[in-house]
Amino acid sequence: MATRSRLRSTRLLVVALVSVSLAIITVDYRQGQGGPLEGLGRAAQTAMTPLQRAADTVTRPVGDFLSGLAHLPTLQSQNQSLRQQLIEAQTQLIHNAELQGRVSELEDLLALKQTLDPEGVAAVVIGNGVSNFDWTVTIDKGSSDGVKVGQPVIAGSPSSPRLVGLVVSVTPVSSDVQLLIDQHFAVAGRLSGSGETGLVQGQGEQDPRMDLISPDAKVDLSGDQPVEVFTVSYEINGQHGRYPPDILIGQVASVVQNSNTLETSVTVRPAVDFSALQYVLVLRTDGSTGGTG
Fold it and tell me: What is the CATH number of the domain that holds 207?
């Protein structure tokens, strides 16, 4: 009997709890957000929020790491592609700067050509024959273009024409130009400022040297303006010098300590960078004048 009574009490308790629950749910539904379960729900959500944040803090890096591993090959490929694009862009910038430099140099040379009477022959340097025995370059113009042995070769602009050298051999389609740094090259020069003259001679790998300057000449390299060397114009027995006057040869780099008290000597840094020489102008003289100037 005790067992039956206990079972009956348990059933009554279950029925009562279910009835109460249904009643509470019905009331909560009818009252909407103001129902009795709303407060309990908010309290439960408030209690669970810190736990959710902690779980998210722990699991998010792991998820990001696993996602990163999955996309690692793609990221590496993208990085490599971006590096290649950067290299190509840098190369293009260098090429554009070099091309702009060539255009500017050619424009200066063509402007210089128009100032000459008769106009010079514009040429492109197509070969470099520099060796221990001679210092020459080959240009793409020859006798069919009016180029002759003995004609001066210059570069630069109308405001600053610069001496390159002298034509020493010619074919119908090309010519060899002896550079002013060649050991067999010589030209009469004049110092800016003082106007003192001397003889500039090539020294191969070293800067050309200007000798036969008056021992009384004062060469001051401490001033703000550099001391420059220009070609000299002269006439002997009715023959003019080979080179036009006032063509820039270079800049005085040093004064040579000379034991010979009868002359002063200096070294001259050429105005032309022969390693980067691309365009030149051959002056249309008859090429017959001998001598050094």
Answer: 2.40.10.340
